[in-house]
């Protein structure tokens, strides 16, 4: 039976910390620290010797220690209503990609769309010494406690009063939905909204677009869930069976509308056209595929991260507003 192979490992009874690296390299602890902090004053031969001894010992300096010495954690606090919601996941990806290029990470907390929980989450993040913070769909109109005196960046806040914010032009998005339904020849439309500023702005743009053709519309309220979309569509169709179009404040609710229409034997788009909002992943997976107003979630997250970095650098950060985009699919008919 062959002998088991073995690997030689350099060990030290005193451990493999910075003191051991300094001892083996014949330098001071301060010199080892300067080598790993890229100090230009270290002699090249000394630097090489320190790095060789450190590699042999498997030593890596503590980033926490370096950051504490500089008074920075390299962490950005992030408060999200619900991490399972696809749109927020795209925003988080944009934030992470920008921060990752700067060697920073995020520390995540959830608010569950509740102002009190949002405040508690911000305090929790501050206890972890975050350098700055981003909050998505902020529900509060009171200033959150600021990390190191740096303002929070708000993404699509419920209250549009915050100077450092990233948002979508929701009014323009509602206008695009109205134009699309008018293009499809629809004259009896309904809007299914949800609580909050975003939905109210989408409805305002939708109403203005229809008024240009002297058209009124019906409305019902949901809560951004698929079930609420189904129930709202059922109520509207019971009362107004002549409806030939729906504009829905979120794609998940729009999926519920499609279900309600299917169960009633109504064809989409032949009998009824449907426009959603957000362009979530499911919009292209539904049948028929959903025409929707795209919200550039990844790009909005990336913009929020860049604003945070500007604030950390002591620079002025101006609000950023993204334009919406119509994504036409089969639920409103062919071009």
TrEMBL record:
Coiled-coil stretches: none
Domain of life, per lineage: Bacteria
Transcription regulation keyword on record: yes
InterPro entries linked: HTH_LacI, LacI/GalR-like_sensor, Lambda_DNA-bd_dom_sf, Peripla_BP_I
Domain HTH lacI-type, residue spans: 16-70
Keyword Transcription assigned: yes
Key words, A-Z: DNA-binding, Transcription, Transcription regulation
Gene3D superfamilies linked: 3.40.50.2300, lambda repressor-like DNA-binding domains
PROSITE patterns (alphabetical): HTH_LACI_2 (PS50932)
Pfam family, one: LacI
Name recorded for this polypeptide: LacI family transcriptional regulator
């Amino acid at each position: 039976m062959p002998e088991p192979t073995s690997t030689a490992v350099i060990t030290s009874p005193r451990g493999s910390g910075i003191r051991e690296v300094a001892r083996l390299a014949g330098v001071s602890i301060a010199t080892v620290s300067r080598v790993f902090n890229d100090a230009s004053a270290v002699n090249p031969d000394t630097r090489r010797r320190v790095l060789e001894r450190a590699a042999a010992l498997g030593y890596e300096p503590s980033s926490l220690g370096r950051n504490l010495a500089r008074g920075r954690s390299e962490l950005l606090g992030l408060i999200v209503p619900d991490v399972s919601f696809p749109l927020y996941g795209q925003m988080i990806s944009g934030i992470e990609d920008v921060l990752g290029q700067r060697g920073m990470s995020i520390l995540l907390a959830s608010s569950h769309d509740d102002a009190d929980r949002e405040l508690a989450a911000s305090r929790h993040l501050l206890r972890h010494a975050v350098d700055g913070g981003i909050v998505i769909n902020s529900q509060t109109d009171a200033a959150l406690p600021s990390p190191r005196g740096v303002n929070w960046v708000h993404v699509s806040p419920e209250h549009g009063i915050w100077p450092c914010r990233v948002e979508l032009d929701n009014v323009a998005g509602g206008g695009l939905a109205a134009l699309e339904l008018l293009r499809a020849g629809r004259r009896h439309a309904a809007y299914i909204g949800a609580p909050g500023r975003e939905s109210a702005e989408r409805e305002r743009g939708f109403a203005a677009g229809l008024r240009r053709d002297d058209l009124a519309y019906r409305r019902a309220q949901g809560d951004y869930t698929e079930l609420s979309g189904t129930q709202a569509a059922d109520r509207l169709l019971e009362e107004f069976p002549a409806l030939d179009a729906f504009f829905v404040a979120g794609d998940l609710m729009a999926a519920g509308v499609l279900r309600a229409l299917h169960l009633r034997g109504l064809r989409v788009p032949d009998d009824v056209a449907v426009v959603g909002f957000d362009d979530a992943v499911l919009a292209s997976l539904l049948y028929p595929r959903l025409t929707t107003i795209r919200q550039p979630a990844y790009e909005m997250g990336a913009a929020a991260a860049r604003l945070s970095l500007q604030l950390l650098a002591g620079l002025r950060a101006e609000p950023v507003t993204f334009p919406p985009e119509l994504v036409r699919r089969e639920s409103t008919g062919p071009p």
